[in-house]
Amino acid sequence: MTTIVQKLNPETGLADLRCRLPKQIRQAVMDLIKADSGSEYFYKLLTDRTEIQLLLIERNRMENYTQCHCFSTDMSDPGYAYESLSLSSVRLLSEMAGKLNLA
Questions:
Q1: What is the pLDDT along the chain (103 residues), one digit of tens a residue?
Q2: Is the dihedral of CA 64, 39, 94, 73 positive or negative?
């Protein structure tokens, strides 16, 4: 199942997302979102029978930054992987992959 990109609603979105995440990444995601109330969050949740990936974009207009967060886990693994890059770094990587015909 794949969810389209959507803005995280400050009142209801956090509860909805919490219910859809496995315990391996739930607390880390909640801590990240609660850490900066001045940010807006947009996410895409990708799931299949064995793996879950949460792509989260954090935009903070007051501090003028956009950060990309990626959480992933195998359903049978008690741990998870986490990466965080600025939006400009993601764009540079995409450009690099395009020049190498990898994209």
A1: 555 667 877 666 677 777 888 888 988 988 888 887 789 999 999 988 889 999 999 999 999 999 999 999 988 888 999 999 999 999 999 999 999 987 5
A2: positive
Sign for the CA dihedral angle at 47, 14, 34, 26 comes to: negative
| Alpha carbon distance 2, 16 (integer Å) | 15
Cα distances from 42 to residues 57, 62, 99, 100, in angstroms, run 5, 17, 28, 29
Q: What is the pTM of this model?
A: 0.84
Place of tokens 């209801």: 12
